[in-house]
């Protein structure tokens, strides 16, 4: 059943504790929305709500981790990375702590809350940090796998979760490793690299284009740092042309990471599709169309790139 | 103090002597480095000395990562030389290595890095973050103790500057620590009333600091930050205070112990020249002689 990636947050933490993994969560007055409240209901001693204080949220998580706990932090992506970026940099990453930054409500698919609540720069500001790994799961199963991976791998992680319901991409038993990219659909004319909610959109675009005789390879670039260089380069070598799609700024996000990799190791034409402005209010589907991030818009961009 | 990691109780005069030795080390390492922060290191020295050598903190001199140790978070990370001097005094690091301070390849960065030298609990230096970290540690130790009735509840000590309290995150942490009744957390404010741009009271005054902390739910104790007996009494009162965290507001003099540095804003972030260091060390030698004489009399 299609669910939001955030729905995996609290439930996966409950699962992990049941399996004997010693995890805690710290949230900042958004526990209901991020779903860490469900974890707190099951394990009150493992859930800390610091109130509306994201900088303290990171500091408290750091302290708990220094005492041996594996700690996940919540809040919304704009506050849970932006308001406390320097705390994440200087306390979590510099000390290489076992803190997993996993806020929800990333991207324009936050919907009606509008621009101030739609985080579009988080991948950029997280991936630039030493010691930080960055995962952008495409669906509920991938989010669950990302949380499980982060919980059992020492050191800082950023896991980008979303509010909107997204179609199923993977089976429930999906697992991944730290550097994960996956060819979801094979093709020969163009590679579409996508992450998060854009994976399903890219897949739909590829289906549309197939009917026109355009063969798209769709790669889910779930791990943006480290990149699965081999998978991405192999696909670029095969198709000779890459389009990246993300509900994030084109500056510094997944598209930038892929472009950097290909520029250095296997230059091919790259077109980045993403955001260059702030978002606005609307329903998630409307917003994806409005900002050129839905399947129709992606198909159009691919045609342009291929000159068809 | 209870627990197997309790440190020996030494007379106040001995602690003052240790602090004097640490001041020597601070001046020597800063002069060798050619940069760094003497003022705030010297104002904090007696507090750090009392914590580590006055029988306040539980730790293992043979194992800096002993899991049962209390924790010290140097919120005001620019006072790193005071911490490094304490680490040498404990024996975690060789004293002469302190002279590599701030040099390429040194274990002693300009601000503390927890991956470099043993005994540094967490990287600090960006002001305002330490009290949150200390609160998380204290909470974890409370949860640990609750889960294991026989275990000693470990304590956490956080040393902040007064200018540092202008950072809003401190007050998020203050609210949180009181809300969570973290009575195993003791903060010490090194109240030297100087920050880079001038006197704290001129730049952006903290006004009635005790009243602020009390309003947030903390127990407050005032002490002279250069009087070992007063500091010890304050730490004892903090440990005896149940149900709320304690802050010791320690009145200090920036640059304490080196007359030409005392209460001078300009010595916040400037290292002494070789000549100035010589003058400072001579002054500390005199103070040492007086302390030794006083100890013999006692």
Model description:
The complex is a heterodimer of chains A (308) and B (298). By secondary structure, chain A is an alpha/beta fold. In chain A, the strands form 3 sheets. In chain A, strands 3-2-4-5-7-6-12 form a 7-stranded mixed sheet, sandwiched between helices. Chain A starts with a strand and ends with a helix. Chain A folds into 2 domains: 3-166, Thiamin diphosphate (ThDP)-binding fold, Pyr/PP domains (Rossmann fold, 3-Layer(aba) Sandwich), CATH 3.40.50.970; 182-306, Rossmann fold, CATH 3.40.50.920. Chain A has helices at 7-18, 31-34, 36-42, 54-66, 77-83, 85-93, 122-127, 140-152, 198-211, 229-239, 254-265, 284-290, 295-306; strands at residues 3-4, 23-27, 47-49, 70-73, 99-101, 133-135, 157-159, 165-166, 182-185, 190-194, 216-220, 223-225, 242-249, 270-275. Chain A is globular. In chain A, helix 1 packs parallel to helix 3, helix 1 crosses helix 8 (140-152) and helix 10 (229-239) crosses helix 11. Chain B has a 5-stranded parallel sheet, sandwiched between helices. Chain B has a two-stranded antiparallel ribbon with strand order 4-5. In chain B, strand 2, helix 5 and strand 3 form a beta-alpha-beta unit. The longest helix of chain B is centred in the C-terminal third of the chain and has 24 residues, at 274-297. The chains are: A alpha/beta (308), B alpha/beta (298). The A-B interface holds A 26, 45, 48, 50-51, 53, 55-56, 58-69, 86-87, 90-91, 94-97 and B 71, 113-115, 121-126, 128-141, 143-144, 146, 168-169, 172-173, 175-176.
Summarize it.
The complex is a heterodimer of chains A (about 300) and B (about 300). Chain A is an alpha/beta fold.
Biggest sheet strand line-up of chain A:
3-2-4-5-7-6-12
Strand numbers in spatial order across the main sheet of chain B: 1-2-3-7-6
Count of extended strands of chain A: 14
Low-confidence stretches of chain B: none
């Amino acid at each position: 059943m299609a669910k939001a990636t955030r729905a995996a947050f609290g439930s996966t933490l409950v699962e992990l504790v049941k399996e004997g993994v010693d995890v805690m969560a710290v949230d900042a007055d958004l526990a209901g929305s991020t779903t860490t409240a469900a974890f707190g209901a099951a394990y009150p001693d493992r859930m800390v709500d610091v109130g509306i204080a994201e900088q303290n949220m990171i500091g408290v998580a750091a302290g708990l981790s220094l005492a041996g706990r594996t700690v996940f932090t919540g809040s919304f992506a704009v506050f849970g990375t932006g308001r406390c970026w320097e705390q994440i940099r200087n306390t979590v990453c510099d000390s290489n702590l076992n803190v997993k930054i996993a806020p929800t409500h990333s991207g324009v698919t936050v919907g009606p809350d509008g621009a101030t609540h739609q985080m579009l720069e988080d991948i950029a500001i997280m991936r630039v940090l030493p010691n930080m790994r960055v995962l952008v799961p495409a669906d509920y199963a991938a989010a669950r796998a990302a949380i499980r991976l982060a919980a059992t791998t020492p050191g800082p992680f950023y896991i980008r979760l979303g509010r909107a319901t997204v179609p199923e991409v993977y089976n429930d038993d999906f697992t991944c490793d730290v550097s994960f990219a996956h060819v979801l659909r094979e093709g020969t004319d163009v590679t579409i690299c996508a992450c998060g909610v854009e994976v399903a959109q890219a897949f739909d675009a590829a289906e549309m284009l197939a009917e026109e005789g355009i063969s798209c390879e769709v790669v889910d670039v779930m791990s943006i740092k480290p990149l699965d260089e081999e998978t991405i380069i192999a696909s670029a070598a095969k198709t000779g042309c890459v389009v990246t799609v993300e509900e994030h700024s084109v500056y510094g996000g997944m598209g930038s990471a892929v472009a950097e990799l290909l520029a250095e190791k296997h230059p091919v034409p790259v077109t980045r599709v993403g955001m260059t402005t702030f978002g606005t209010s609307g329903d998630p589907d409307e917003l994806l169309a409005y900002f050129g991030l839905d399947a129709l818009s992606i198909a159009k961009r691919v045609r342009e790139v291929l000159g068809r | 103090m209870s627990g197997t990691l309790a440190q020996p109780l030494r007379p106040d005069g001995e602690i003052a002597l240790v602090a004097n030795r640490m001041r020597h080390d601070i001046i020597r390492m800063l002069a060798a480095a050619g940069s760094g922060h003497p003022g705030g290191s010297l104002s904090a020295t007696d507090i750090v000395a009392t914590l580590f050598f006055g029988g306040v903190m539980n730790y293992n001199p043979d194992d800096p990562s002993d899991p049962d140790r209390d924790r010290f978070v140097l919120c005001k990370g620019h006072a790193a030389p005071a911490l490094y001097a304490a680490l040498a005094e404990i024996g975690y690091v060789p004293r002469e290595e302190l002279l590599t301070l701030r040099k390429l390849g040194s274990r002693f960065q300009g601000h503390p890095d927890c991956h470099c030298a043993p005994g540094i609990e967490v990287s600090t230096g960006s002001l305002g973050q330490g009290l949150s970290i200390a609160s998380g540690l204290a909470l974890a130790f409370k949860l640990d103790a609750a889960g294991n009735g026989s275990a000693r509840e470990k304590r956490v000590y956080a040393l902040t500057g007064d200018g540092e309290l202008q950072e809003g995150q401190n007050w998020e942490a203050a609210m949180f620590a009181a809300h969570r009744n973290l009575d195993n957390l003791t903060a010490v404010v090194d109240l030297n009333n100087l920050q880079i741009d001038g006197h704290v009271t001129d730049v952006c005054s903290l006004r009635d600091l005790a009243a602020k902390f009390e309003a947030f739910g903390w127990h407050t104790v005032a002490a002279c930050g250069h009087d070992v007996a007063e500091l010890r009494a304050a730490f004892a009162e903090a440990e005896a205070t149940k149900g709320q965290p304690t802050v010791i507001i320690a009145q200090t003099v920036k640059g304490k112990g080196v007359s030409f540095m005392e209460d001078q804003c300009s010595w916040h972030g400037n290292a002494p020249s070789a000549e100035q260091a010589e003058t400072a060390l001579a002054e500390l030698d005199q103070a040492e002689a007086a302390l030794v004489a006083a100890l013999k009399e006692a």
